Amino acid sequence: MAVTAQLKSFTPHPGVNVSAESVFKGRVTVTWDVQSGGGTATHFIIGAIDATTGARHENIAREEGGDAIGSIVVNPAELTVGRKLHFFVTAIVESAHGVTLFSSAPSEPSKSITIQPKDFSAVPLNAIAVWKSDCSALAKLIATPRDATHGKWSSAQHSGAMRSNFVRGLGLVRVPRLGKAINARAPTLLAAISQVANTANAMRDVLRYAVPQYCTPTDEEQREICTICHRSDEPALLEPWIKNGIDPNMVGPTPRRSVPLLVLAAREGHVGQIDLLLQSGVDVDQKQNHTGLTPLFIAAQNDHVTVVTKLIAAGADVNKCGRLGATPLYAAAQKDHVLVVRQLIEAGADVNKARTNNGCTPLIIATVKKNHTVLQQLIAAGADVNKARTTQYETTALYIAAQNADLAAVTMLIAAGADVNMAETGHGMTPLYYAANKGYTAIVSKLLQHGADKSIRGWMFETPLEAAQRMNHAATVALLA
Asked: What is the mean pLDDT of residues 67-93?
């Protein structure tokens, strides 16, 4: 009789509110009110009534622990898509040997709910260490809690209804074990609830089930998702993760080498994955941690024309630099990616934006690499042909073309207005001096035709003629004499 009286003061009874919600097929969240009084119920039995046929199912799930205020019911056989059900709960007291000592009357049934079709299988649960992986997501969830009480309390000090409000304010389905006190000085609800050991599973379920928009993948899941973006252009492999709440801006699990999903897809030219990530609201300019390179830079560097088109259309910053200051245009010019260079110029790329570590412009790197078509594109787009790179010795594109004995580049640069007498800053050598010293007769001839000054002295205060004589370049000496 004492057990019965004790249990009745704590357990569900006719008239107590029972509510249910279905988000995924095969799963329902059932919650109920709990009366205070320090009862000793060992578990709850959840039953259901078919709203269409009236069929009654006394036991479709069992929730352990008399301090529970709800249960995430998993029963694919009974909770089929489209089925309409009312739910009720019954409190049970069992002996240590599993013998039922008391069973309360079933509660009044909940309102009818319809089982929803969404598939829960694509939402893997986290590992046991919930605090490390999910506490930031939980903080978001409880930033503005509803109807939550906070402060010093335990089952002996407050009623079960107050405990219910506290936990329901967090969206959870279980209260702390009886007698487990909460620190009165816990600065946040997150800190308070984190001190209760047996709530970890409930919080993980809520974070991954009730609020999948705060889904936080484990390290293994992150590796799997990154592998999908890296190795496959099949959006169907990534789509379940996106639909079930992963952040499209997530990066790999290794902090120093973490790479965003969009960068991985852009590197491999995976157009399908790019489309899915863009539709999901990914940050189109998200940088790779250890290089600072953007998806557009990576795509431009790898000549993925279609990906470049999509990223530009999505608003990618065509002038955003990596850590060394190189732009996507610089990367495309260096690799001689003619179509990408054209795309970037048409999208408004700054043709004169130089690397921050050496002042090298797209025009200069195109000259270094003898990428003549790109060089012509940049000149046509208004590139400054006299802008020097800022290494130890400042040198212009024309000087570099003379160094390379690149007559085609010299011709294009002179035609675009390059200063034929602009010397490098180390030894004062002009393009003419360098070409004469090396015996590049064709380059010397072209420079002389366009007004190169034969009297400007370079290394060791030599004139171009003296340098050619010292090196025994007879043909060059004849031109300069």
From this structure: 84
